[in-house]
Amino acid sequence: MSYTVLARKYRSQTFDDVIGQDPISQTLRNAIKTGRVAHAYLFTGTRGVGKTTVARILAKALNCLAADGPTTTPCCKCNSCVCVNSGEDIDVIEIDGATNNGVDQVRELRQNAIYRPARARFKIYIIDEVHMLSTGAFNALLKILEEPPDHVKFIFATTEPNKVIATIQSRCQRFDFSNIGPAAIAGQLKSVLDQEKINYDEDLVLPLARMANGSMRDGLSLLDRLISTGAEPLNAALLEQFLGCPNSEKIWNLIEQIGGSNAAGTLDAIENLIGTGVSEVQIVDSLIDYMRDLMVVKSMGTDSELLILTERQRNRAGELAEKFDIAALIYNIATLEKLRWAVKNSDSSRALLEASLLRFALSEHFLNVDELLSQSKGGPAADVKKKVVTSPRTEPAATVRRNEEEPGGDELPFIAQEPRGGAGSGDIQSIIDDWPDILGLIKSKLGPGTAGLLSSAVPSQFEDGVLTLEFGQAARMHKKMCESNGRMEQIEALLAERLSMQLRLKFSTAAHEPPQTDTQVNQPATLSQKRNDLVNDPAVKMVLMGLDATITGIEED
Predict the structure, then answer these.
(1) Residue 312: beta bridge partners?
(2) What is the CATH code for 423-523?
């Protein structure tokens, strides 16, 4: 007897067996129970998610000979059910739309459709890849789809519904099949392995399920390839050896080197991956997936259900997540997605990959425009941004910290400056006088975006340790943005350090528009004006001249 691949052997036979498409299965069951089965269905979705399988189950449910009428639980044993499973039933005709896509084939279908079924209740046409039909073939279907004989049902399946003309879609009930989650695929893979009595390690199933990319058929096909190697027990090492999957430990090591700002270690980790035959694009894809996991850990903790990881991998992700903040991970993921296209289409893909990952690893050593301007004017270098964002301490006075830039790692005292302007006295007037310097501090510590939002506010009251910042009527949106995303807590901590006292912030909106202060900048009316002002800014011109550079693009913060 010839071998039957797992994707066919373990194909779902009833609605209860369908995995990952519960809403569709439930809707079709209810339609059969209530006698509301439509004359035409359009099943859409990516490959391997169950479109043709559900079409066959629906055909068996409508034509099962063991029941007196359409049933939600076909027997799968009668002659009709068995023939439908094998694709040989005379009343359930499966047509490949890719090869039978001409007008003549559709005309023949229309001529045959008028004849009643030979033995079953309905004559059912299942047309796979229906989007491959020509425009003429689609038009030939229109009339019979609009007024079909009572004994005819149509089930169309496609991976590209946008190519199915609107007049066809309007005559069908459409069901969109979603990608199957890794957890559901992993559960089915375990069931198959148990039924096949094959030994396997637990750490194999989840990575294999993620490689399936939402397709149950792809997952079973990959499992078939692993079983064909003859190795037992099946383990995660086989994924790297036979399926080309990057080694998870090596990816974790690469992320660890990036998080530790280790340039040499980052290059070595890339070499270790490429040396095993992993392509640059695969490395980028893996980094996107793994950094996404770190982002979830950072946001929701290691127990989140959004993580499809083993217990050991969760612990590892929790350790590495401490080396990054959410903003850095978001930036890394967005940059990697842009990098993927460049790496895939470049003749210098490895150099691009190495340069980008070194940019992540050495991000603390890259200067922004403010720091460059400060140094070009002979001023001190601004503090280097850290990967991990921590709340500013509220302890005032002089503190001693390690000077990391001193060779040999000698500890040198660093004396923090005392607050200027006498703001520590708690006098609202002294805070108002010191407000321009406070905004400058906020700009250097929290970024120009936060400073720009606060430039629309003025200190109005300071009582009982509560500092009230008043926004104008036109700056209500600025006020809301200051209150969101943790900005208020960051500003509060920085002001407490600046003023050398514990305080709480309160934002309010003025009853009328307050007078403009020197710190408030009039925003240009249009995006074009904003860009013109930026290009003509003396500071920007100084940077361009100093670097002999040109502006290639402008992004708003």
Answers:
(1) none
(2) 3.30.300.180
Render pLDDT for 401-459 as a digit per residue (tens, 0 to 9): 434 444 444 444 333 333 343 444 457 888 888 888 888 888 888 877 787 778 888 88
Tally Cβ neighbours within 10 Å of residue 514: 17
| Closest C-alpha to 447, from 517, 532, 382, 528 | 382
- Kind and range of the H or E element at 439? helix 428-446
Q: In what order do the strands lie in the sheet with 504-509?
A: 457-463, 466-471, 504-509
pLDDT of residue 276: 84
| Bridge partners, 95 (sequence order) | 127
Residue by residue, DSSP assigns 42-72 as EEE-STTSSHHHHHHHHHHHHH-TTSSS--S
Residue among 261, 252, 247, 262 at smallest CA distance from 291:
252
Task: Count Cβ atoms within 10 A of the Cβ of residue 207 and give its class: 0-12 exposed, 13-18 middle, 19 or more buried.
Answer: buried
User: In the chain, where are the structural domains located?
Assistant: 6-176, 182-242, 248-364, 423-523, 524-557
Architecture of domain 248-364: Up-down Bundle (1.20)
Nearest partner of 421 among 438, 408, 440, judged by Cα: 438
Task: State whether residue 156 is helix, strand or coil.
Answer: strand
User: Phi and psi at residue 49, in whole multiples of 5°?
Assistant: -105, 0
Q: What one-character DSSP code corresponds to residue 408?
A: G
The pLDDT, as a whole number, for residue 410 is: 42
Same fold? 6-176, 423-523 = no
CA dist 12 to 161, 192, 351, Å? 24, 12, 47
> Strand pairing partners for 471?
457, 509
**Given this model, what pLDDT does residue 550 score?**
64
pLDDT, one tens digit per residue, over 12-27 is 999 999 999 999 999 9
**Rounded to the nearest 5°, which phi and psi values hold at 422?**
65, 25
The one-letter amino acid code at 58 reads L
Q: Which amino acid is at 446?
A: L
* Low-confidence residues of the chain: pLDDT under 50: 367-369, 380-425, 514, 517-525
Task: Encode 170-188: b = buried (16+ Cβ within 10 Å), e = exposed.
Answer: ebbbebebebbebebbbeb
Per the DSSP assignment, residues forming a β-bridge with 200 are: 234
Q: Is 473 helix (H, G, I), strand (E, B) or coil?
A: helix
Q: Which residues are CB-neighbours of 34 under 8 A, at least 6 positions away?
A: none
**pLDDT for 46:** 93
Q: pLDDT digit string (tens) for 140-175?
A: 899 889 888 999 999 999 999 999 999 999 999 999
Q: Is this model's pTM higher than 0.85 or not?
A: no
Token pair for residue 340?
Answer: 């993927």
Q: In the CATH hierarchy, which top-level class contains the domain 182-242?
A: mainly alpha
**pLDDT tens-digit map of 61-104:** 999 999 999 999 999 999 999 999 988 899 999 999 988 888 99
For domain 6-176, give the CATH number: 3.40.50.300
